[in-house]
Amino acid sequence: MAHTFLLEIGLEEMPAHVVTPSIQQLVQKTKKYLKEQRISFDDIKPFSTPRRLAIQISGLADKQPDIDQEVKGPAKKIALDKDGNWSKAAQGFTRGQGVTVDDITFKELKGTEYVYVEKHIAGQSVESVLAGLKDVVTGMTFPTMMKWGSYHFEYIRPIKWLVALLDDKVIPFQILDITTDRKTRGHRFLGKTITLANATDYEDALKNEFVIADAKKRKAEIQQQIEKIAADNNWVIKLNPDLLEEVNNLVEWPTAFTGGFDEKYLAIPDEVLITSMRDHQRFFYVLDQNGKLLPHFVSVRNGNADHIQNVVAGNERVLAARLSDAMFFYEEDQKQTVEDYVERLKSVSFHDKISTMYDKMQRVAVIAENLGKKLGLDDTQIKDLVRAAHIYKFDLVTGMVGEFAELQGVMGEKYALLNGENPVVAQAIREHYMPISADGDLPESTVGAVLAIADKIDSILTFFAAGMIPSGSNDPYALRRQATGIVRIIRTNKWHFNQQMVEDAIAAETSANVAPDLDQKAQVKAVGDFLRDRIKVTLLGEKVKHDIVDAVIGGPNTDLLDNFTSAQVLSDHQNDDDFKGTIEALTRVLRIAQKADKSKVTAVDTSLFDNDSEPKLHDAVDQVAKQASELDIAAYYDALAALKSVINDYFEATMVMADDEQVKDNRLSQLSQLSDLILHLGDLNQLIVK
């Protein structure tokens, strides 16, 4: 007979951002537990609200299946004493398995006989297994934990009630002072306590008490209500997915409503209004059919429509106060110039172990100009880049950004334009923060992209030099995110960026007398490795094979774009018929070249050749070396692959480790030159070819 089981954890209200990952965790941990306990089931349906995490398991088996298990014990020589009697080891083993020594058989394993017993394990009932879900509940983890009462136990919020119902039967267990029951609770204000007769009654019973427990249905209801409001008013309301998810996890019985604000506030930039509504008040903003912001908003109440006008009026008052502050800051900020704000940055700390924010801008200006020239920007772009770099943090000391930190960069662009700055400069000021998340939008302008790289390189370099290097999951200054931003920008723009460019930037800082009082040069390799580790994470996330990733990251080529391209090229060729043969030939060169004494690697002396394969290899390698700088990675791989037969002929005819020391060193020098060319693609020894 198939069963249905309901587990509900009733809690004080959880933070909205915790609800979805928590119910996902509960589902996954339960699936793992049931699999380990050998209990079959059809499906687990999740339910979640701010006050509850619940799962409904359908199609549960009556019990675990019985199993017959063969268990290996001690070796025969240990199980029997010198007189052939059972030793204490044998007796203890059988006793532990619930059998007797009469059940022992011997079987040979790798030339040694061992004790074996067969034992029958009767499956436990589903009731017994489900009681163990207590450990699943208490074993959950959350980003923040709290204690309550006099207990040492920690959880996301205090547990208020527990439901554990198998069909119509309560499965008993207890967490702290809360014992499982069949009673759940409806909406905090509109509903009442519900006594469930059966696990299958859960969703409908809660709906009758003003709780939509299914998060997907609740979200669909919110979306439908907002879309109806938009249609009725001929509005356009963009349902931001993150905001919709957050609002959904704040309510149990959603009722959408509209409110408004004074049209005078439309004089404030849209970004300020949207931030005030969306990020601070969790309102959805409203546009007309032409995309123009309107003085209205839509919000969602946790309850029904009773007395909704009181709710509307309260929300309007809160928003009006915030917008009044925003207008004040907007008007006051414009009374000062960009130069005024830049001057104030001289007393604003970037970090107390590094420098002021003003000093950071001086460094970034030098780094940006240096990078811009290497990346091929023209004179006009360089001029705009340098100007942007000298002012790009000025908005940090404006009143608006002080109140709305989310608008840093955005207000920089707005105020720069109001102060007559070139639009290219203003755009770069906004874009230098990009991407603001691992997969966030990238700068659209070339000047903005270079400024973003320069800013992030300076941050990583100086924090590393100051000894604040991320370790484990600890990354308080988001340096990994900044490194990911650098490699994404470089990859998207197809720019070559290597370790030497970082060294050159440091040298330029020193020459311009803006370098910090830190040893940045000692951190160049560590910073390069840090950036390449972000490439590794990116490639693995794109399902590139581990061995290919290890090969391109493990090679000496520090060019980030080449690393990405090499991974793509190797992935493209990995299923070629001749891939195995090509890699085996190239890696044979790498392995033997490692035997060379680097101090003896010199130009190849062709007079020491004593068979036809040596000059053929020499000429082929020389040709690849001459073309290397002009070839892209794909063509470079083809050129190396074309050497396969020449390399194989060489090793067939040539004893590299010759008795003649001079001949041996000459041959190792020849292979070392080819090895250097191969390693530009990656450490191909890491590849697994079959």
UniProtKB/TrEMBL annotation:
Residues 584-675 form the DALR anticodon binding domain. It is an enzyme of class 6 (ligase). Its main location: cytoplasm. It comes from the Bacteria. Its EC number is 6.1.1.14. PROSITE patterns: AA_TRNA_LIGASE_II_GLYAB. GO terms for molecular function: arginine-tRNA ligase activity; ATP binding; glycine-tRNA ligase activity. One of its GO terms (biological process) is glycyl-tRNA aminoacylation. GO terms for cellular component: cytosol. Keywords: Aminoacyl-tRNA synthetase, ATP-binding, Cytoplasm, Ligase, Nucleotide-binding, Protein biosynthesis. It catalyses: tRNA(Gly) + glycine + ATP = glycyl-tRNA(Gly) + AMP + diphosphate. It is found in: Cytoplasm. Transmembrane segments: none annotated. HAMAP family: Gly_tRNA_synth_beta. Belongs to the class-II aminoacyl-tRNA synthetase family. Tetramer of two alpha and two beta subunits. This is Glycine--tRNA ligase beta subunit. It comes from Secundilactobacillus silagincola. The lineage of its organism: Bacteria, Bacillati, Bacillota, Bacilli, Lactobacillales.
